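Problem 3 from the worked examples.
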Amino acid sequence: MKNHLIILSLSLCISMACLGQSGKVFDALTMDSKILKMERKYAIYLPPDYETSQRSYPVLYLLHGAGDDQTGWIQFGEVLRITDNAIKDGTATPMIIVMPDANTGRRGYFNNVNDEWRYEDFFFDELIPHVEKTYRTRNEKRYRAVAGLSMGGGGSFMYALHRPDMFSSACPLSAYIGALSLDQFKDRLAKNNEKYKDSEIEAYYQRHNALSLVNDIPVDELKSVRWFIDCGDDDFLYEGNSLVHIVMRSKNVPHEYRVRNGGHSWSYWRESLPVVLGFVSDTFHQH
């Protein structure tokens, strides 16, 4: 009887310890980029059982908005608390979350028009390979997802539209989809005193506007990614997200489109994050 009580006590202690486990975030990691010719920062969330298991994990690349850096989702988005809770209550599978800095050197997730700044090349050719070499990750398309807010929502759209072979799901939140017209894009370049050939500007616009890409790329490629689009009804970027939804509907591309009460704010995105974690987990899971 005494031995049974000891075993029961040990089992309870182990169970309580598991329940009390927390993931870990590291918010100032660095890697060398030959493409950008500098050290680049990134943050990472590792799930509660990462250090005690030997298995590999799916990965969510979570992109910040303009004005933030790799710490945005940690400090304001409360990614540690929200992800831990989602894993504990079973709405999300344990995953690694990578949050790169896109606010150093030049702001944004894309190459610039003349390819002098090649952030998108860095993301695919250096960051993802670095993550997959450094951490225990599942490296197939099915176990890789991308999400982000505002500027990072635009990055989520572009990365999944440019490389649908790489991501099983994409979750743009309050996304900046790009200038809504070529003239708007030209005006923005003029204000920044950036001068390029008309042919360069038009080609860049077509490749970096979510609406143009959704219209132009093959439907099978669009359908190979699971889409979750979320934007508040008071958000100033509501029009662009609505237009992408309408085009996807017209092309019969399955997607989740959510409009909730709210604007362009962290309170809105903190409510979105648990839903995003559940959405990408549904793709990661075996069915």
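Problem 4, a separate protein:
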Amino acid sequence: MWQSVATEWASLIFRWLHVVAAMGWIGSSFYFIALDLSLKPGQGLPDGVKGEAWQVHGGGFYRIVKYLVAPAAMPSELTWFKWEAYTTWLSGFVLVIIVYYLEADLFLVDKSVMDLTPTQAGLFSFGSLVLAWLLYEAACRSGLARHEVPFAIGGYLFLVGLTYAFTHVLSGRGAFNQIGAIVGTIMVANVFATIIPNQKKIVAALLTGQTPDRRWGAAGKERSVHNNYLTLPVIVLMISNHYPLLFATRYNWAIVAIVLALGPVIRHFFNSRHAGKPSPWWVWGVAALGMIAIFLLSAAGPRDVQTGAVPAKVDFAAVEEIVLTRCSMCHAAEPVWGSITTAPKAILLDDARHIQRYARLIGRNAAWSNAMPPGNVTEMTAAERATIAAWLATGATN
């Protein structure tokens, strides 16, 4: 019991830290991209300044200038923006260990997709995380990233291909988390391996009286722009585990493909406005079409669809037997599943009254998707899911 309680509290603490750090990182990232795009040339600016921006906030006025490379001399105080990114990744990786690696049989593995052991699934997850980042880093350092449009298209196809592969190896929940973790790792590695080291090179050059290389700042800006366009998709992927109709349906990989496309498109709208360009209002038409497509795809049902005929009217007794057999070992006043000490989300499914009360919730998780049982550990069949769906279609009555 105490191990389970400790794990739950650790999950809460690191999730809280992860969200707070991510808010700080994303907020500063969005702010500086907007600031950089809004800079305007002005009179009387120091040599080497790209432009200035006047802003008002909290009852005060701010005048901000940006040096194209660096000022002539090192300032006495310098604020670095890095720990927000590092803390986001470190807390997120701890969460992956707590939630997905230690509970791999529930959340990372789905034996109906691929019969992996928890160790195999964990090694696959970590290995693909490292390999995907190395491939991205190699592509950037080769100079391919300087060709923005082909690089963006290639990167998009790379991530969609990974998503398709992950949904055929891991559980849907695990696949969404894995692609989100890869994108997040790429973003943090951009800060750790390129942006901050290049900024340190610039500072070191200033301290020794040398002229910093313009390429250092340009490379950091390039990676910062990559992060800016990846932020919205990774947020959706990180919260997707709360939405079974996203991660546990038949076309889950296609839903990710749409999300990966919509995020950069939406950022384009705001970046254009910050730069003072005409607002690309067409973006919201594309976003609306994308959301409609996600809605339709999420309604396609679970991956293991029942192909045989299902009775138009299903007796509640059949549904009750399915739920008691497949769900009540966890969703009970005294769960009998080893690592679970209380019913998840306090939802009880151990008698007829509770089953009818949570009928729509059962539908979202076990009939219209295959999110539950997690990892299909109790081996609910496609026919059983179809039976529940048919019962719900009649109004979930006796």
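Solution to problem 4. The mean pLDDT is 90. Strands lie at 49-57, 60-67.
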